[in-house]
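Chain A, query sequence.
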Amino acid sequence: MVIEVDGFNLHDTVTCGQIFRFSIEDDDSYTIILSDRVVNLKLVGNELFIDSNDMSNIESIIRNYFDLDFDYDSINRGFVEIDSDNKNIIDSCIGLRTINEPKLEVAISYIISANNGVLQIKNCLDNISRMFGEKVFFRGNEYYLFPTLEKLKGASVSDFRNCKAGFRDKYLYEFIQCVSNGLFDFDIINDMDSSDALKYLMGFKGIGEKVASCILLFGYHRFDVFPIDTWVKKYMKENYGLDKVSDIRKYMFDKYSSNCGLFIQYIFHYNRNVR
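Chain A, predicted structure.
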């Protein structure tokens, strides 16, 4: 299938650190393991070529996952209107999208991410999926979908340890048990403002402010929260003289309000890949 997409940068969106379970193929296409299928995507001009082991409802699945129908252009123009010095950053991020990840997978992914590298996160997620997820075949290869809650709730601490979760093994186990017995509710966050949602998430072991921010940004499309990593800290120190996380958060929210999280994503991409 081929769909028309305007102003979409597939490479930057896939490789900017928000997607863990993907591979780049020899033809420069991208194979990504979604929650219920495996897809292969290649962007040629404004045409996005899509293949999958399950082509049902595929266009809406891809449009939702990559947030293709959200109006980023208006927000980007606003960033430049607020501060003309932002133009280089915005120009470098045209077509970069924030994905919509299934909430259980995004929560597990970012609990694993604490003090961990991208390759280690990917390997742990792959191990968990191989141990508990459904096997599917696509283009002659086998893949494992991320497991359902029903499958995960039977996992033990040692299972997660064997999946190379490290010290996070007990956090994963306890979080899954909280979700299973109703002590944690993904849906209740929908009715909270982001400040309350952060506090709610951080009430569970293994979820600090950075992890909670990632869960809200990539799982709930909350652009008023953001993780702060070393790339962002370096940029804010060099350009604004800010090095405390609390000062960075206050400055960015005061300046960019409900879209500050999106602008932080742009800073991360710009400082890591462009400068």
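The domain at 2-69 is CATH 3.30.310.260 (TATA-Binding Protein). Strands lie at 2-4, 22-24, 30-33, 38-44, 47-52, 135-138, 141-144.
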